[in-house]
Amino acid sequence: MDTASYKNCTLCPRDCEVDRTKGPLGFCGESAACRVSFIGPHFGEEPSFTGFHGSGTIFFSGCSSQCFFCQNYQISIQHDGRTITPAELLSEVRALLLKGVHNLNFVTPDHFWPHIQSLCRALREEGIKIPKLFNSSGYQRPERVEDYAQEMDIFLPDFKFAEPETAKMCMGDARYPEIALKALREMVKSKGFLEPWDTTGLLTAERGVLVRHLVLPGHVENSLRVLRLLHKEFGPGLPLSIMSQFRPVPGCFQRKKFQRILSPEEYGQVLDLVGKLGFEKVYTQELKEETDFLPDFKDPENPFFGNKRRSTTND
Ligand code: SF4
């Protein structure tokens, strides 16, 4: 495995230049020892990835974005998880594949990219072919996308902020919109739009890009700007997932606007613009008080209630 990237780490746009093999740690808060929180079939992704047998998710601990509202805050901010060696990771991924998942879904992969790259090479050498997803915050170094594209088939980036000031307030880097847009251009250039496009889950995705956007309470204007920006840059054919599942987490408690779920009016305004701009391939979510897919990583066996329910139904 290429551990050199961990020694003067510039794996993400934070450019910490720390030696993660010795310390101190950088912004993502993770050393060069790979850490994961959950490896297993997940049914909370869009039908294009979940299909009928689940998406083969690998949730990594830590994150370079550190958004205070992160719905996975237990692993991204509080660093829940366990250390895993490259051999153990390979073995657990092999076991995951035996469960019949439709893809391998690397969640927050950029700060452990050398481990993931080495894993993908090992799988290739064993002749294992399965779509691989780079499931990320969108906050990627654009020049690294080509490298990711060597191993990954699908890019599933967020596009969280079009407003620099909102990005600064939420994750401390006003450059997010500019960086995420450049990275997204590279992703679309290398893989195109998601295909096949089948919202029934019958035909799961094999290649391409789908962009996720989580609408934040009190920040509809940011979402409208995201939509206009994406439309201007990529046109109405860009596949989107417009998410309403925001729930207040501990990092929101000091921030008044973030202490509630989204209102139907807010989500409606965003979906209205999706319609007016003519986006052709769009996943939306039902807006409701309860969700089965707000994770609790304190239960490492299966942090998603919805997964437990689906696996029981599938038995
Ligand atoms: S991956 Fe972590 S240590 Fe490396 S540059 Fe990004 S935040 Fe800093």
Radius of gyration: 18 Å
> Alpha-carbon distance between the termini?
38 Å
CATH architecture descriptor: Alpha-Beta Barrel
> What small ligands are held by the chains?
iron/sulfur cluster
State the major sheet.
7 strands, mixed
| Overall spatial form | globular
For the record, what is the CATH homologous superfamily label? Answer: Aldolase class I
Provide the helix percentage. Answer: 25-40%
State the secondary-structure class: alpha/beta
How many helices? The count is: 11
Q: What is the highest CATH level, the class?
A: Alpha Beta
Q: Strands of the largest sheet, in order across it? A: 3-1-2-4-5-6-7
Low-confidence stretches: none
Mean pLDDT: 94
Taken as a percent bin, the fraction of beta residues is 5-15%
What's the number of structural domains? 1
**CATH fold field value:** TIM Barrel
User: What is the ordering of alpha helices and beta strands?
Assistant: HEHEHEHEHEHEHHEEHEHEH
Can you summarize this structure?
The protein is 34% helix and 13% strand. The chain has 11 helices and 10 strands.
Spell out the key features of this protein.
315 residues; alpha/beta; TIM Barrel; 7-stranded mixed β-sheet; 3-stranded parallel β-sheet; 34% helix; binds iron/sulfur cluster
Describe this structure in words.
34% of the residues lie in helices and 13% in strands. With 315 residues, it is an alpha/beta fold. The chain has one domain: Aldolase class I (TIM Barrel, Alpha-Beta Barrel). Helix 9 (220-234) packs parallel to helix 10 (264-277). The model has no long low-confidence stretch (mean pLDDT 94). Residues 9-12, 14-16, 18, 20, 26-28, 64, 111 line the site of iron/sulfur cluster.
